[in-house]
Each structure stands twice: as C-alpha cells, then as structure tokens.
Design brief:
Elements lengths: L1 H9 L2 H25 L11 H15 L3 H10 L5 E6 L10 H14 L6 E4 L9 E7 L2 E7 L11 H41 L12 H47 L7 H22 L9 E4 H14 L4 E4 L5 E4 L1 H18 L3 E7 L3 E8 L21 H4 L8 H11 L3 E6 L5 E8 L2 H6 L1
Parallel strand pairs: 6-8
Antiparallel strand pairs: 1-4, 2-3, 3-4, 5-7, 8-9, 9-11, 10-11
Helix pairs in contact: 2-6, 3-5, 6-7, 7-8, 9-10, 10-12
Length: about 450
C-alpha cells in the first residue's frame, strides 16, 4: 500500500511543492555545513586575530626604530609562546594546515604584504605548535615562532543543531501551510468543475485564494452562468417551438386528411411560411454569438437611413432623424440584425415609427420610437428574456416565438452596451440602445 501511496502523494501539487521545499532545505543545510569547513572561509574567532595583532604590533615597532636597536627590542619581547629574531637566511618550514592558512590570511590583510610573507608549521605531528612566520623587513627577514594557544569554539553543538533543525522544520511547516492556502481553493475549483459536468445547477464557487485562483474561479463562475443560461434558453426554445408548430401542423394534417380533391394551396403556403418564420427565428437566436464576428468600422447613420428608406418604400410610415455620417467600430452583421429586429417590432405594433441616432459623451445612442400599445410596466424586464410573449395586445404576430428582443439584448451586451425599454405617454414604446464609443471615433468627432 505504501509504495503506491508515495507516487500518488508526489503527483499532487501539494506533494510536489513540499518535495521542492524539502530538497531546497536539505541543499541549504549541506551548503551551510560545507561553508563551515571551506578553507577559504573567514576564520572563527578568537583564532588567529589575537596572535595576528601581537605580530603586527611587533612589526610596526621594529619598522619605527633604527636597525641597531631592534635586537634589544626583540630580546626584551620574547615570550614562551612567541619568539622572534632577525635573520638573513632563515630555515624555512614546509608544513601547511588550516591554522597556517588562517594566520597568513589575517597577516596579509593587516600588513598589506603580498611577497615574502609565509606561515608554515615545522612539526607536522602537532600542527597547533611551532608555527613559523616569515615577514620581510628591510634586507632581512623577521622569523617568528609561535603556537596556537587560543581555544576555538565548538562549531557543532546541541544548540546549533537545535536551531538548524528548528529552522528547517519551521520553513517546511510554514511552506505546507502556505501551499494548503493555495491548494484549497484550487481543489474546490476542480471539484466544482467535475460536479458541473454532471449537473449544470451547481452553486457558484467562492472566489478566494491568490489572485490567479480568484481569476480562474471568476472565469469559471461566468462560464457556468453562461452555459446554464444557454441550456435553459435552448430548453425553453424547444418547448416553445414544439408548442407553436403544433397548430400549423394540425391544420396542414386536417387539409390532407379530409376527402377533398383540391387542397387549398394558399392556406398551406401560409402555414409553411409561418413555420419557416418560427424556425428562422429560432436559428437566429442559436447563432446569435456576436463575439464570433470580427469588428470593423460601420457608418451607422447611413445604415439607419437606408433601412428606414426601404421600409418607407413598402408603405410604412417611418422616418430617421440623425447624422448622415456616424462611424462606429462594431460587428456590422450583428448590428444590422439588432436594428432590423427593433424596427420590425416597432412597425408591427405601431403605425408610426421614429428612429433617432447620435453620439453623446463617448456613447452612441440609438432610439426606435413607436406609437403602439407599449408594454406593462411590470413586464419591461421580462420581454428581453427568450420566448417571453405578453398579452394579446402585443403577441398576435404570426411566426413570433418571443426571441426578437432577446437577440437584440445579446448583441447589445456583446458590444458592451445596454438596452432600455421605456413606455411613452400616452402610448408607445421607446427602445433605447446605448453603445460605448471607441476612442478613435471620439477623437475624430
């Protein structure tokens, strides 16, 4: 069981991060111990600093007096652990240890002497005694015999290992706690994603943890909301289409079943046309992903004027008030579908239609105004939902399945704008579309 458990633990993010922390702590410990034994590392006090200061003081004193008096000073300064003499040809010792290296490094750094200064040991069996120091002094050499009488403090003690162990354990514990703070939200995000695959009604997850995890959770919640809304809309669409298609199909079936030699062609064509409108409306809603279309510059003023002229030529009382030239950076096909749906709604429910457009405070504002019956105040927010149809005053439209304003709202939100429906006095409806104006257009105007 245990051999299988270890790979499973290290396959998780928590296990991998803890393994990295443990390896880093072990590498740091080994490096720290290696530096303690590295020959080039600074020597531990007190060795060799006390001996170095005595030798340096003797050298400075000898440099400051005539050569004839140096012998008296050397004779008076003899100690049991430090003897010095001036000689022309000293007998050079050849032994080398860590102690000789430490003392030589200290003397070189204080005396600023590079050539001729050496520290060696003459007794390889006991390198802490009989150290030979050779320092050039004028035309002779100052030979000093000393020993290491300072006691080096213990490098490895119980407090040292206890502090080092506490450091490693503390780093590992804090790392585990910090990693768990990151892994917790990530684990919950994974669990919610798995649950969402089985049930789209899962509650949104809490956006917590580091910034990247919060962003991922926010994106997941938005994705979950969009998918749930899309699934609900499509379910309602199927129910609405199934219900609305039943009536024309029943009429067509009755005409075919009755014992008549001649079928009323006009009625069949009317029912086929009605079914085609229903299916086209549903397909338009299913393919209303405005974000898939590339953006480009569109003359919104010219488009509105053209649409109004086309409807006017068919006998509709409609007029446009606004600039002839109104460039707007958008998705052209989606914007044309948006305007067409609004105009057809206004024309169907009213006898007069007014379209206005303009740019106000970095916003493109388009209003479609009709003189129809309007919408009940408590239903203004409901009509933008898919497949919502109101009372008979506004629902006797052949082929309508309640998707027109829903498609408009989707396109407006895809452009970062807002759709507002306002009832007019004494009657009528204002459909107001506010779209953010691009910076280039604001500068151009």
């Amino acid at each position: 069981m245990r051999p299988r458990l270890m790979p499973r633990v290290f396959s998780t993010t928590l296990g991998q991060i803890l393994a990295i922390v443990a390896c880093s702590s072990a590498a740091t410990l080994l490096l720290f111990i290696a530096l303690l034994f590295y020959p080039g590392a600074p020597p531990n006090p007190p060795w060799p600093w006390q001996t170095s200061y005595r030798i340096v003081a003797l050298v400075d004193m000898l440099k400051a007096m005539p050569d004839a008096e140096r012998a008296h000073v050397l004779s008076a300064g003899q100690r049991s652990n430090l003897m010095a003499k001036l000689t022309g040809k000293p007998s050079i010792c050849v032994g080398s240890t860590l102690d000789t290296h430490d003392l030589e490094s200290a003397l070189r750094s204080i005396l600023r002497i590079d050539a001729g200064l050496t520290v060696r040991t003459c007794d390889a069996r006991d390198p802490t005694h009989d150290l030979q120091v050779l320092i050039p002094l004028d035309d002779r050499t100052l030979e000093i015999r000393t020993d290491r009488n300072e006691r080096e403090p213990d490098r490895f003690t119980v407090p040292f290992f206890a502090a080092l162990a506490f450091l490693c354990v503390g780093v590992a514990a804090l790392s585990a706690w910090a990693v768990s703070r990151v892994i917790g939200p990530l684990r919950r995000l994974s669990e919610n994603a798995d649950a969402f695959g089985r049930d789209i009604t899962v509650a949104p997850i809490v956006e917590e943890g580091p910034l990247e995890i919060r962003r991922a959770a926010h994106a997941f919640n938005r994705m979950q909301e969009r998918i749930a809304r899309s699934m609900q809309s499509r379910t309602r669409m199927l129910a609405a289409i199934s219900h609305d298609l039943r009536t024309p199909l029943t009429r067509m079936r009755l005409q075919l079943d009755v014992e008549k030699k001649e079928i009323e062609r006009a009625k069949l064509l009317r029912d086929v046309d009605l079914m085609q409108k229903m299916v086209s409306s549903a397909l338009a809603f299913l393919t209303s992903d405005a974000g898939a279309e590339a953006k480009e510059w569109l003359d919104l003023g010219a488009l509105l004027e053209t649409l109004c002229d086309e409807y006017a030529e068919s006998g509709v009382e409609i007029r446009y008030e606004g600039p002839d030239y109104l460039p707007f950076f958008c998705r052209p096909e989606s914007i044309q579908r948006l305007l067409t749906n609004l105009l057809e709604n206004a024309i169907h429910y009213g006898t007069q239609t007014l379209v206005t457009a303009g740019a106000i405070e970095r916003t493109v504002l388009v209003e479609v105004i009709d003189n129809g019956p309007g919408i009940p105040a408590d239903r203004l927010q409901d009509v933008v939902e898919p497949f919502v149809r109101l009372d008979p005053a506004r629902s006797k439209r052949p082929g309508s399945v309640g998707l027109g304003l829903s498609i408009v709202d989707d396109i407006v939100r895809a452009h970062g704008g807002t759709l507002t429906l306002i009832n007019r006095k004494p009657s009528g409806l204002i459909a107001r579309v506010a779209l953010p104006l691009a910076g280039d257009l604001a500068t151009r105007n």
